[in-house]
Specification:
mainly alpha, MetI-like fold, 2 domains, globular
């Protein structure tokens, strides 16, 4: 006979609930069971905080060192070991850099080149992406693949042939020497094409039924609904123009036509290091301001058109 205690134990064993199953939607390196444990959570947060802090330090510390270096005196900046904080911070290096480097003229030149390059690049990239997306030319995928393949070529490989071409065309110290090589950008064309592909074809067909031609469709239908991606491509183009150094160094050789990066490098050896730091800080302010003003548009434009309903 089975005793009452044994029957009770057996009943409890039968009534025991199965272990709770954890819903796993994505595969991860660490199992969900380990993450739900006490030590798993501690290790997870420790690794996450270390990675975020390390990445932030790697990107922000050079900017911090540049700003604080401009606020130090020349002897303090050259002191070994270096100091993390300036002993007597002063903004005199910024004013001295503005006058010595003539940064006002350099920034105007750079803004002019960036604006002109933006106009030429948008005219070429938008029309090319529209043709590949909506007009469907023969061998369009082959053409797009060839454009994307150019992104794999190091820029230094085509630097000499491109420079020889600019010299033969007589475009040295001419803004078109900067604008024409940057007119067609495979990455921008790819971004624009992906967004144009997501535009409903019914809109295009309705415009065509009303008698609109390809250019009218582009101007009245495609461009108004493509503001997010147009903003992203515009920001990328302008920031690239501000950051470019090697090509303006080769093309713009006259001091009155130099960009801000080239102008600072030409006279950097004749001024103190803290003044150089001050000039670099001033030169970097425009692009930093542009990013913080338009960072939402950048993120929204990069994800727009990537998911189709």
């Amino acid at each position: 006979m089975i005793s009452a205690g044994a029957r009770t134990a057996t009943g409890h064993a039968r009534e025991r609930r199965p272990p709770r199953r954890i819903d796993v939607r994505f595969r991860t390196i660490v199992s969900p069971h380990q993450l739900n444990s006490r030590w798993g959570r501690r290790v997870y947060w420790a690794v996450l905080v270390a990675m975020v802090a390390g990445s932030t330090l790697a990107f922000v510390f050079p900017l911090y060192w540049m700003v604080t270096g401009a606020m130090k005196s020349g002897p303090e900046l050259a002191r070994m070991p270096p100091t993390l904080l300036p002993a007597a911070p002063t903004p005199d290096a910024f004013a001295e850099a503005w006058s010595l480097f003539d940064i006002g003229l350099l920034l105007r030149n750079t803004a002019y080149y960036a604006f002109g390059g933006w106009l030429v690049s948008m005219a070429v990239d938008v029309t090319a992406a529209y043709a590949l997306s909506k007009l469907r030319p023969v061998l369009g995928n082959v053409i797009l693949g060839a454009m994307l393949a150019t992104l794999m070529i190091p820029p230094m490989v085509v630097l000499i042939p491109l420079y020889v071409t600019i010299v033969d065309l007589g475009l040295l110290n001419n803004p078109w020497g900067l604008w024409l090589p940057a007119a067609a950008n495979g990455f921008n064309i790819f971004l624009l094409k992906r967004f144009f592909d997501s535009i409903p074809r019914e809109l295009i067909e309705a415009a065509r039924i009303d008698g609109a031609g390809p250019l009218r469709v582009l101007w009245s239908v495609v461009l108004p609904v493509s503001r997010p991606i147009l903003g992203v491509v515009s920001i990328f183009t302008i920031v690239t123009s501000f950051k470019d150094f090697v090509w303006p160094l080769l093309v713009m050789t006259e001091s009155e036509r130099m960009t801000v990066g080239v102008g600072l490098s030409q006279t950097a050896g004749a001024v103190p290091q803290n003044v150089i730091m001050g000039g670099l800080v001033i030169a970097g302010v425009p692009t930093i301001v542009v990013f913080f003003l338009f960072q939402r548009h950048i993120m929204a434009g990069l994800t727009a058109g990537g998911i189709k309903g």
